[in-house]
Design brief:
Blueprint: E1 6-9, H1 17-27, H2 35-51, E2 56-59, E3 75-81, H3 91-94, H4 97-105, H5 120-127, E4 132-137, E5 142-147, H6 149-156, E6 161-166, E7 171-173, H7 185-194, H8 198-204, E8 212-217, H9 230-234, E9 238-243, H10 257-266, E10 268-271, E11 274-277, E12 285-290, H11 301-313, E13 318-321, E14 323-325, H12 341-351, E15 355-359, E16 381-386, E17 411-414, E18 416-420, E19 426-430, H13 432-449, H14 455-464, H15 483-488, E20 498-502, E21 511-515, E22 528-535, E23 540-547, E24 552-555, E25 566-573, E26 576-581
Parallel strand pairs: 8-12, 8-13, 9-12, 13-15, 15-16, 16-17
Antiparallel strand pairs: 1-2, 3-5, 3-6, 4-5, 7-14, 10-11, 18-19, 20-21, 21-24, 22-23, 22-25, 25-26
Helix pairs in contact: 10-13, 11-12
Length: 582
C-alpha cells in the first residue's frame, strides 16, 4: 500500500510532530507497520527537532519499504553479552549491609551471577566500536549504547554478543493535570490515610521505622528544604540520591512530581500544635532516584533498570515507581508480564527481596485503556486509583487484566490526594502516581509490623488485607488494603449480609436481593455492592457496582449472561460474598 506524501512543518510547535505521527499510526492500527521502522521514524524526527536548524522538511514514505535508507542517525540499543567470564565480585564491598540482611531473610544468594559486573574486556571492545555507552545492567548482562546501523552490524559479529535490541521508549509519569482544588483539604488529607487504617498502625507504633524506600521519579525539588521532609532530614533518613539522567548525586530540581509523590509516602509538617500528615511511613528511610528528563519524554528504560539495581545495592526494601511504558513502544498484547525489560526487572527485584509498588497508569479513558509496564509484572504490586467522593474506581485509572489474563491491579487507593508541594503548601493532585505512594507507605508499615516476613509473603498479605478480598475485579483488584488485617491477620467474623436468588427468567428482572439488617445510609455514606460475571475460562466477563439504598430490590442481570461462556455471577457486599451458577 502506497500512502500519499506528506510534509511536516517544524516551527515552535515542532515537538508535537511525533505525537501526531504516533496518533496517525495508532489510530490506523490495521496498517501493518513494523515497530522497528516506526521507532526509526521517531528517532529521526527527534534528531531533526534537536538540531534546531531545519524549519521545513518533507518526509516521503512507503509502508512497503523493505528499508529506510534516509535513517542513518545513531540510535540507542541494548547489547547483551553471553557470559561474565573472568570477573571479580565481593558482595560485602558492593552491597549495603541492609541489602545483605534483606537477601538473607528472603533466602536470596548474596553472591549471584546476576549481581556480578560486566566483563571489562567486552565493555572496552564495544566502547571502541560504538559512539558512546550510556549505561549498563548487571542483572541482564547488557550495555546501553548509542550506535549507527553499521556499528551495530559490527557488534553482531562479536563472539561474546548474545543479542541486540533497539531501545526507544516513552515513559509516562502517572499523574493528571487540571487538579480539582475544591476539596476540603484537611478532611481529604486525613481520609486518604484513615481509609487505609492509619489509627491501627499508629496504635501499634508502626510508621515505617527502619524500612528503606526507593523512589523513582522525575525530580525532587524542595525535599532538601521543605518543612514536609524536615523530620527526615533532621534524623538523617535521606540515605542516598542519584540522578541517572546526568550521572550526579543532586536530585533536588526539575519537576515537582517526585516531591509530591514522596509526601504521600512520608510527608509530615508540624507547626506548633498542628500536624499535617500526608503519608503513613513518616519514620522510613529514603533513596531518591531521578530517572526522567524534564521536557524530554523519550526517556529510556535504561534509567529505570539502572535505578532498580542501584536501589538493590543500597538496601531498599520497597521501591515506589509512578512510571509506565505503554503505547509509544508496545502493543496491548505485549503487556503479558514478559515482553518489557523493565517488567522483567520488576520481577527480578522481587526475586532479590524487594517489594516493587507501581502505579497502574492513567489510560482508563483512552484507547490504550489497560495497565502498562512494569505494572504488568506478576510480582509487582500494581496500584489502581479510586475516587474519594465514592470510593469507587476513578475514571482515568487504567484497567486490568494483563494480556495473558492475570488480575491487575492488585489493590487500590485514592487517585486524588492532598500532597505537600516543594514549598510545603498543600495542593490537590490526581493520578495513580499518588495512589501508589500511599500503598508504598502502607507496605513500609506492614513490613515493620512483620519484620521477619519475606517479600512475596508481604505481597500476598497486602492483597489479602484488601477490603474486597477474596472478591476482585479489573478496576479495584482486591480493594483498599486494611492495616487492621496486617496486624491481626484476621478479617473478623464475616456474617451473611445479604441473600441473592437468580430465577433464570432472562426477559425480566431476574436477580432478587435482600439486605439483612439493613439501615438507611447517611447522606454521603457509601453502601456499595460489587457484582461480576465469570466466564468459562475463569476470567471476568464484566462487572458493575451498585449503590444499595433499600432492603429489598430486584435487578436484571446483564444481557451478557445469555452468552454460553458466562457460567456464574459473584456478588460482594459488606464483607460477605455469594456465588450463583447460571
Amino acid at each position: 500500500m502506497l500512502l500519499k506524501p506528506f510534509s511536516i512543518i517544524i516551527l515552535n510547535q515542532g515537538r508535537q510532530i511525533f505525537k501526531h505521527l504516533h496518533t496517525f499510526f495508532f489510530m490506523n492500527c490495521h496498517i501493518n507497520l513494523n515497530l522497528y521502522y516506526f521507532s526509526k521514524i521517531r528517532t529521526f524526527i527527534i534528531h531533526i527537532i534537536k538540531m534546531k536548524k531545519i524549519l521545513v522538511f518533507i518526509f516521503l514514505f512507503n509502508i512497503g519499504f523493505s528499508s529506510i535508507s534516509c535513517l542513518s542517525a545513531q540510535d540507542s540499543y541494548w547489547v547483551f553479552f553471553t557470559d561474565k567470564e573472568d570477573v571479580v565480585f565481593d558482595p560485602y564491598e558492593y552491597f549495603d549491609t541492609k541489602a545483605i540482611e534483606r537477601r538473607i531473610k528472603n533466602d536470596v544468594p548474596i553472591n549471584h551471577p546476576t549481581d556480578w559486573p560486566l566483563n571489562e574486556t567486552y565493555v572496552n571492545t564495544v566502547s571502541s566500536i560504538v559512539d558512546s555507552i550510556s549505561g549498563h545492567t548487571r542483572w541482564f548482562n547488557a550495555l546501553a549504547v548509542l550506535a549507527s546501523e553499521e556499528q551495530i552490524e559490527q557488534l553482531r559479529n562479536l563472539y561474546f554478543v548474545k543479542q541486540i535490541e533497539s531501545m526507544d521508549y516513552y515513559s509516562v509519569l502517572a499523574s493528571k493535570k487540571g487538579c480539582d482544588r475544591t476539596f476540603e483539604y484537611y478532611n481529604q488529607r486525613r481520609r486518604q490515610l484513615d481509609i487505609l487504617g492509619r489509627k491501627d498502625f499508629e496504635d501499634g507504633g508502626f510508621n515505617g521505622k527502619g524500612i528503606r524506600i526507593a523512589i523513582f521519579d522525575g525530580g525532587f525539588p524542595g525535599v532538601n528544604t521543605s518543612p514536609a521532609f524536615e523530620q527526615i532530614r533532621n534524623s538523617n533518613r535521606l540515605i542516598d540520591t542519584w540522578d541517572f539522567t546526568k550521572n550526579k548525586d543532586f536530585v533536588f530540581y526539575s519537576i515537582s512530581h517526585g516531591t509530591e509523590v514522596m509526601s504521600n509516602i512520608g510527608g509530615l509538617i508540624i507547626r506548633g500544635n498542628d500536624t499535617a500528615q500526608y503519608g503513613l511511613a513518616t519514620g522510613a528511610e529514603f533513596l531518591l532516584a531521578k530517572t526522567e528528563i524534564k521536557r524530554e519524554p523519550y526517556s529510556e528504560e535504561k534509567n529505570w533498570l539502572m535505578a532498580v539495581e542501584w536501589a538493590d545495592k543500597n538496601g531498599a526494601d520497597i521501591i515506589n515507581s509512578s512510571l509506565g511504558y505503554t503505547k509509544d513502544r508496545y502493543f496491548r498484547s505485549d503487556m503479558d508480564g514478559q515482553k518489557s525489560l523493565v517488567t522483567r526487572a520488576g520481577n527480578m527485584a522481587a526475586r532479590k527481596g524487594i517489594l516493587v509498588v507501581n502505579a497502574a497508569g492513567n489510560d482508563g479513558e483512552n484507547i490504550w485503556n489497560i495497565i502498562g509496564a512494569p505494572a504488568d509484572a506478576d510480582s509487582v504490586l500494581t496500584v489502581g486509583g479510586i475516587d474519594p467522593s465514592n470510593d469507587c474506581h476513578i475514571s482515568f485509572s487504567s484497567y486490568g487484566p494483563t494480556a495473558d489474563g492475570r488480575m491487575k491491579p492488585n489493590v487500590c487507593a485514592f487517585g486524588s490526594t492532598i500532597v505537600a508541594n516543594p514549598d510545603g503548601y498543600e495542593i490537590n493532585v490526581q493520578g495513580t502516581s499518588f495512589a501508589s505512594p500511599l500503598i508504598a507507605g502502607f507496605a513500609a508499615c506492614a513490613l515493620q509490623a512483620n519484620p521477619n516476613m519475606k517479600t512475596m509473603e508481604l505481597f500476598l498479605l497486602i492483597e489479602q488485607s484488601g477490603h474486597l478480598y477474596p472478591y476482585y475485579d479489573y478496576a479495584h483488584g482486591y480493594g483498599i488494603p486494611q492495616a487492621k488485617y496486617i496486624i491481626t491477620k484476621q478479617k473478623g467474623n464475616v456474617q451473611k449480609t445479604f441473600e441473592a436468588e437468580f430465577n433464570g427468567n432472562m426477559g425480566n428482572e431476574n436477580l432478587m436481593i435482600k439486605i439483612l439488617n439493613f439501615t438507611t445510609p447517611s447522606i454521603g455514606e457509601s453502601s456499595l455492592m460489587y457484582i461480576k460475571y465469570i466466564k468459562i475460562d475463569g476470567t471476568i466477563g464484566s462487572y458493575q457496582i451498585i449503590q444499595v439504598s433499600q432492603k429489598k430490590f430486584a435487578m436484571r442481570l446483564y444481557d451478557t449472561i445469555e452468552d454460553d461462556n458466562m457460567i456464574k455471577v459473584v456478588i460482594f457486599y459488606d464483607g460477605y460474598i455469594q456465588e450463583i451458577n447460571l
